[in-house]
Amino acid sequence: MLTRFAVRTHFVGLGFQARLGSQARLFHHSATHSKKAGKKAAKGKKADEEEIIELIDVKGYIQQATDHFDKTIELHKKNLNEVKSGASNPAIFDKLKVGKDGSKFTDLATTSTKGRNGLIVTVFDPKDTKLIVSTILAAGLNLNPERIPNNEQQLKISLPPPTTETRKQTCKQLKEIFEEYKNSANKNSLGHARSEILKELKKIDKKNDSVKKITQDLEKLHKDYITKLQDSLKQAEKSVLG
């Protein structure tokens, strides 16, 4: 008599799950770990048996880690560039709130660079110019916007040249960004992603060779991405120190 098999394929690493019907054929792969979930036979009925086998795609964890680590590298570089640019970053005012109603700065004006040591703020409506000036002065950025003659909608801002002290302070901020994305509670950090994946792998049979291999590959991958993070930091520091 044929035995019925209900096979449930569980791709944990990819977050995908499907259930196949009876009389399915199992194809085992070196990177796939199979685990028997149970076996039952009903009394007084046909001697058919149902066996559930859970297949776990352990290779999916490496792809999951790679995707997360790539995102971390991208965010790390973005934050380093913002800190490195400092006051010369045209996005420096974007998060400011304007007026009593807390309007977004970007809804009222836009900022662009002027040479290496200047910014130009263009106000969309001339009646908001005074409000924009007050907002920038009150932001504590030590920047003084000045109206461009015969133009009610544009402000020029001269940026002070960097000093040894400001360069050191910027490098300190760069290292703080590095530590945050290297190993912190931040969900986007390399350490956090590594920890979460290791927790999932520990739920599978530790003695399984595939799991051991994937764990080793994950550790190597994590180490490689830390090196990439360090390289980005060194480049940013070199740019700041000149």
TrEMBL record:
GO terms for cellular component: mitochondrion. GO terms for biological process: translation. Residues 77-241 form the Ribosome recycling factor domain. Pfam families: RRF. It comes from the Eukaryota. InterPro entries: Ribosome_recyc_fac, Ribosome_recyc_fac_dom, RRF_sf. GO terms for molecular function: ribosomal large subunit binding. Keywords: Protein biosynthesis. PANTHER family: MITOCHONDRIAL RIBOSOME RECYCLING FACTOR PSEUDO 1, RIBOSOME RECYCLING FACTOR. Necessary for protein synthesis in mitochondria. Functions as a ribosome recycling factor in mitochondria. Belongs to the RRF family. This is Ribosome-recycling factor, mitochondrial. The lineage of its organism: Eukaryota, Fungi, Dikarya, Ascomycota, Saccharomycotina.
